[in-house]
Specification:
The structure is a homodimer of 233-residue chains. With 233 residues, the first copy, chain A, is an alpha+beta fold. Helices cover 24% and strands 37% of the residues of chain A. At the A-B interface, strand 4, strand 8, strand 9 and strand 11 of A face helix 1, strand 4, strand 8, strand 9 and strand 11 of B. Chain A binds a DNA duplex (19 and 19 nucleotides) through helix 3.
DNA sequence: GAGTGGTCTAGACCACGTT
DNA sequence: ACGTGGTCTAGACCACTCC
């Protein structure tokens, strides 16, 4: 029995073998289906999944081409910090360091980008593993979009966990970087001299409205983020 | 017309609205199909895609449940450095700094993990943007798996580009981290004092055999890696 | 206009795991 | 045993875009 996985692997192999170099047109779904003796739906699923990884590009009428700049992609899981710590067999600790409500203004541009004048909830908290600082979280929440956040007791629940449960979002964006820590980072994460921080910045929207911005700082020398691969063969 | 996207959004909304809290069972494909007046295949695709993002978990006979710890995931594109630089409108430059062939031994454990005694090609090269150091590449290639690499002129072609074109792989793994630069990093990337490096380490296999290991170091203060989102609504 | 991908349908069989 | 998801089929209609 030929399945969509078989077709996917076969096409992947033929691309890697050089049969279809970058830029080349691969056979249409109908031709692939005929060649492998399946329904078109089966070939469709195979090639659709290859397109999702970026290996090929599809356009109606124009057909399916092998992508030129074969960048690789990786699926990075960004765990909830509590789960990450507990999964490592360590004791999770949490502290709310600061909570303010600010009018949305210049300070938030490029981060939350709130509507002019809309109030912003600014939180700073620390996540610990076995009592040792693990992640420093600076967060902005748009109270116009998420009014309920005003009344949540964030000394008991971390904003991450509350938001995941309470607030839907439709789009998010991440930036990963290495940085020299700020003075705050240095003190709160108890960094060694010269130790950098690994930063994850995430912005989240519901439709066009910004929901939350967060900066997650990890001690660089003690943090690595791994990914499973995304291409497959 | 109700499409798989409609069902996907509807289910997403109902989960976020609290109708099905984490751990709850959502209706079977057949029930959803009946509810929304579609074929089962349509409901299948909707829920399958939600499962791919990790929002729900599916098991035969047991049904589909809302995931408990809904970690988020992001799809990170790792571009070929040349394309990345040229896409930014900068001039690409490349230099091979070092090339050695070494017997596979202790030094490579945890990186390439070559078969005992198999020769390893070790390359160091620098990628520049407008003449400024952009990425320092340290690479190991298993010559037992990729014998052709021995005869390639890597002063003309960067190993990244050659490998992408010439060698298939079946699995890869990435680690992202922030680090204090080594003395080599500092000199070759012309780092400012206290400037950290952003590291990408990638290991690639063909079946069970290690193909290549690479460490890509970027000046932290000048490098950010962005991702598109992977969850969708 | 015609060929390509995008999607849906109604049905089917099977694998799997819970009961 | 039986209900669930996993997949395939053969056909269909449509949207898009190149010619």
């Amino acid at each position: 029995m030929t399945g969509y996985r078989d077709i996917k692997e076969a096409v992947l192999r033929r691309i890697h073998a050089g049969e279809w170099p970058p830029g080349a047109l691969i056979p249409s779904e109908a031709d692939l289906a005929a060649e492998y003796g399946t329904a078109r739906g089966t070939a469709n699923r195979a090639i659709r999944e290859l397109a999702e990884t970026g290996l090929v590009e599809r356009r109606r009428r124009a057909g399916t081409r092998v992508t030129h700049r074969a960048g690789r992609s990786a699926l990075v899981a960004i765990p909830i910090v509590r789960a990450e710590i507990e999964a490592a067999g360590r004791r999770y600790g949490y502290a709310l360091l600061d909570r303010r409500i600010e009018p949305g203004d210049q300070r938030h541009i490029g981060r939350l980008d709130p509507q002019a004048g809309a109030p912003v909830l600014a939180l700073t908290c620390l996540h610990l593993a076995d009592g040792e600082p693990h992640q420093l979280e600076d967060r902005l929440i748009g109270l116009d979009v998420v009014p309920d956040a005003r009344d949540v007791d964030f000394t008991a629940t971390s904003p991450n966990e509350w938001l995941v449960r309470a607030v839907p979002y439709s789009r998010s964006e991440h930036i990963f970087s290495a940085a020299t820590p700020t003075e705050d980072d240095r003190g709160r994460l108890r960094l060694r001299p010269d130790e950098p921080v690994f930063l994850i910045e995430r912005r989240t929207w519901l439709g066009a409205k910004p929901v939350t911005w967060v900066r997650l700082a990890h001690p660089g020398a003690r943090y690595r983020m791994a990914s499973r691969d995304h291409d497959a063969a």
